[in-house]
Amino acid sequence: MRFRPATLLPAAFAFACTVCATAPAALAQTAPAQSAPAASKPRTMQEILDASKPSDWRALDPARTLYLDLDAGRVVIELAPAFAPAHVANVRALARGGYWNGLSINRVQDNFVTQWGDPSEDEKARRPLPKGAKAKLPAEFTRSERNIPFTPLPDADGWARQVGFSDGFPVGVDTRDDTAWIAHCYGAVGAGRGNDADSSDGSELYVVIGQSPRQLDRNMSMVGRVVQGMELLSALPRGTGPLGFYERPEQRVAIRSARMASDLKPAERLNLQVLRTDTPLFTELVEARRNRRDDFYKRPAGHIDLCNVPLPVREAPAAAAKPKR
Amino acid sequence: MRFRPATLLPAAFAFACTVCATAPAALAQTAPAQSAPAASKPRTMQEILDASKPSDWRALDPARTLYLDLDAGRVVIELAPAFAPAHVANVRALARGGYWNGLSINRVQDNFVTQWGDPSEDEKARRPLPKGAKAKLPAEFTRSERNIPFTPLPDADGWARQVGFSDGFPVGVDTRDDTAWIAHCYGAVGAGRGNDADSSDGSELYVVIGQSPRQLDRNMSMVGRVVQGMELLSALPRGTGPLGFYERPEQRVAIRSARMASDLKPAERLNLQVLRTDTPLFTELVEARRNRRDDFYKRPAGHIDLCNVPLPVREAPAAAAKPKR
After folding, report:
1. Which residue on chain A is closest to B105 by alpha carbon?
2. Computed over its alpha carbons, how large is the radius of gyration of chain B?
3. Which fold has domain A62-118+132-268?
4. Which pLDDT belongs to residue A133?
5. Separation CA B290–CA B154 (nearest Å)
6. Are strands B113-117 and B151-152 parallel, antiparallel or unpaired?
7. The CA-based dihedral angle spanning residues B262, B267, B269, B271, taken in that order and rounded to the nearest 10 degrees
8. Given B14, B111, B234, which is nearest A186 (Cβ)?
9. Regarding the domain delimited by B62-119+132-268, which CATH topology (the fold level of the hierarchy) does it fall under?
10. How many Cβ atoms are within 10 Å of B276's Cβ, its own excluded?
11. Which residues in B lie closer than 8 A to residue A305 (C-beta atoms)?
12. Mean pLDDT of B250-263
């Protein structure tokens, strides 16, 4: 059975499915059946999601949701103040001050990152930070691993002592030195910096668009992750200059605005929900992905990497948006 | 020091570098110095490549090089007959018979794959296979691990007993059941199939454009990998239909031609070289990437995943093309 994203929005983490023969007719033949699966067969991801309850999902908090609006559409970023409080505070101040409005995406390096901010070469020509945004921040590469929600993955990871999910974010954890950090998975958003660890101010942001560059873990202040609209950042033309920078100003991709959802009227906000990562349902989903049991897979992997776990996103069901009684 | 791809072609595996502050002026200041590095400091990847000898590189073999020509440019695919001899033989026959000429890229699923072939829904409308191409092939998910060149990586991998490189291809190996297979890293090219293991004929090909979907390892017949032009496949608009298929025929990306380099006149071929993976220099490069020692990285990872190892590609130096005496 092949996964069809019928009821779900395109997610930052693609619902990676089988590589099937292309004929749409063939696809149609394999649309998910409505009948219940055989009792002995574990549920597929789609079946698990179809069986989810409202409590398996959580609404995005407008106070930590950033909308990056491009001509092509909206990118939704969930911020992670639990991991980089100073950077997230600056991102909020930058958004409120309209810092990114009219700036641009300046760098798209294939299999690495898309990056946006002020492209000015001349320091003096760079846009000043708005009121409330600080020019100097501490490096926030890791935080204490104590007192964070943590759902460990069953599998080991060469990049970290332990990996799993913390309130929807893929994270590494090391109890030996009491650290936790957001991993550089596809869709992770970090603050660009110079060579000095504390040289990022959150005005330059990048998002991972390829194979997870986990070597950057614990080297960058991570501000969040893209939960929707990832394709607006990943499918951009690659820059041909060094490091994937666009060589000519007209190649840059304009940013219409970057605003906090909480700064918009409720009616102007998207009503998105993400799957909770601290539920039995999520644990079942991880297992369904560790061992694919559908008709396509001939050999289940018995393993999953942190950055291969899908993190489903959906529009809030109408019933949830308008509770009866 | 930041890596600048000054002398190298854009490679299928991006030379993932640091996430720097964007100002090009700042970049220019950090261009690789020509002076020798301090004796105590390990060489960076760029320094290693700069010091490479002609024998550290190998020319692509025209008999196993496929050119996929799109309006936007050429994608170069190195085929792997050592891993899927029947499929590669079919790919050669399909290319020679002009099978893909005028067909299209029909599917681009974000963070997963780009796929091309005949988009016809109606089986009867599908283009017949040319002479020499077989309609039925055996599944070639793995091969014997004996007698293949193999440079193991120092790090463990949750997806395979052992991982490393075989003649330039990232592979998994398991001596317990005597198998080896090409891993689904960024740029890997496989043969799409239906639910039956032996239902691929090589006419539908896909390439990995996101986080490595290693769960497909040992489930697909892998025909090769993209060595140049990856951005022509990874930056395409994502399909909005199920599984990332383009919903309207006009969204499909036309294939001008797909030809074997060996079927072109020598003057029409690209003169590309790829870094050999069975040399001390490559081992040094892997270590340089396992532990970044440049000024940007504050904490070397001490680890690298199979799909994070860059596989450099370059145009053959003029001196090599025209040996003196």
Report:
1. A22
2. 20
3. Cyclophilin (2.40.100)
4. 98
5. 9
6. unpaired
7. 120
8. B111
9. Cyclophilin (2.40.100)
10. 18
11. 158-159, 214
12. 98
